[in-house]
Amino acid sequence: MNNNIETMLGLKFPIYWNDWALEPAAVNLLIYKLITSRPKNIVELGSGLSTLITARVMKTLGESYTLTSIDSDGSFLEETKNRLLAEGLYDRSVIKFIEAPISRQKFGEDEYLWYDTSVINSVSSVNLLFVDGPIGSIGKMARYPAGMFFKGKLAEKATIILDDANRPDEREIIKRWTEELQVAKVIKREDTSRGIVEILLK
User: Fold this and answer.
1) In 3D, which of 177, 8, 16 has the Cα closest to residue 30?
2) What is the pLDDT at residue 3?
3) Is the CB of residue 120 less than 8 Å from the CB of residue 70?
4) pLDDT in tens, 127-168
5) CA distances to 125, 156, 194 from 166, in Å
6) By three-state DSSP, how is residue 161 classified?
7) The architecture CATH gives domain 2-201
8) For residue 31, which of 65, 119, 159, 200 sits 20 to 30 Å off, Cα-Cα?
9) Burial zone of 188 (CB within 10 Å; 0-12 exposed, 13-18 middle, 19+ buried)
């Protein structure tokens, strides 16, 4: 299946399918959402394979879009940028890389280790939010703040995709987001081992 994805996308270089990369079924979901939803403003938390996939698909579609890739690891952002350059997909007017260090951030009455919000406050009108970071090992409910931070920054009928949805923390995050956001539907994909969920907003 991996080679099929690379062939389908017409990539010049092979994808490095390591344990951190999106599962092939998750890649297929992302491709499907990009093709069917044609999002204008895309934000991803966690740079890497999703960045490459998004840039390749949107260029193939010929759609006008912006992609903001947020990660706490500057060297990994640079690797991702170089990967796009190698494929001829990096356009600085369309794709923005933001290094946002992990620090204590307050949301409501609670504090979480999450991305430094001061460097990503300008993001708005997001049609597709792809959440694959921060890494779960930084602390409990590591990805939960994404819902609180982006609550007022998501466009009408936006989609949130949450990776690693089979983990206990992520299951609790889905429950909380369903209660706190204007959720129309939650779709859990059963064809991945780590789990991935679509959350469709009203």
Assistant:
1) 8
2) 60
3) yes
4) 999 999 999 899 999 999 999 999 999 999 999 999 999 999
5) 28, 27, 6
6) strand
7) 3-Layer(aba) Sandwich (3.40)
8) 119
9) middle
The token pair at 160 is 């949130």
> For residues 202 and 157, is the Cβ–Cβ distance under 8 A?
yes
Read off the pTM: 0.96
Residue 2 is predicted with a pLDDT of 61
80-83: long-range pairs with CB below 8 Å, 24+: 80/47, 80/48, 80/51, 80/52, 83/13, 83/51, 83/52
Q: What are the residue ranges in the chain where pLDDT is below 70?
A: 1-3
Residue 126 and residue 112: Cα distance in Å, rounded?
A: 22
CA 42, CA 124: separation in Å to the nearest integer? 10
